Amino acid sequence: MLFCARTLVVTLAGGLLCPSVAWAVGNTSTAVGSATAEIMDPISVTHVGGQALKFGTISVGDAGTVTVSPRGAATYTGGVSKVNGPGAAADQFTVSGFKNRSVSIVTYPGVVSSGTRTMSFTTTPSITSGRLSNGGQLVFSVGGTLSVPAGQVGGTYTGTYLAGAVYN
Asked: For 33, left (φ over 0), alpha (ψ -120 to 50), or beta?
């Protein structure tokens, strides 16, 4: 018991050097605070099966471009023209996550190749931001512009690109 009394005396005396240890004399009050946390579902982007950004079947003389809108409409410039064969089409993705949340969409350029021959393309999403539905989903499409060099060698060119989403 003697040890406790000495400790108390030292603590009270030490309160002058360290005010946080001792309560101030007089009127005091405390209140209870609150805290919350909201864990959002992980966001994911899924490619819709069977879809692809298709620049169609083209003929090349001089350099030019094929532009496919996010709605799938194609325009041709320079020495590039459409020929009979598979047509142009936009690609499609689904974003899934926490319902009613705002998201930003981003797509990146890509490259198509046939053997060692390559062509680059840029991408254009149908939306750059949106809100997930009550079911936690949002669908967007992607168009793009393929740069075709003069005299590009014939072949079937394939490639990939990235599409992503982030919560705002």
From this structure: beta
Q: Please work out, in degrees rounded to the nearest 5, the angle formed at the alpha carbon of residue 166 by the alpha carbons of 162 and 168.
A: 150
Any idea what DSSP says for residue 24?
P
- Residue range 2-50, pLDDT digits in tens: 333 333 444 444 444 444 555 566 788 999 999 999 888 899 999 999 9
Specify the 3-state DSSP secondary structure of 40. coil
Domain ranges (residues) in the chain: 44-167
Q: Which two tokens mark 91?
A: 């690609």
Mean pLDDT value across residues 54-78: 96
Query: Which tokens sit at 80?
Result: 């590039």
- pTM, to two decimals: 0.79
Contacts of 45 (CB under 8 A, 6+ apart): 93, 94, 95, 96, 163, 164, 165
* CA 98/CA 146 separation, integer angstroms: 35
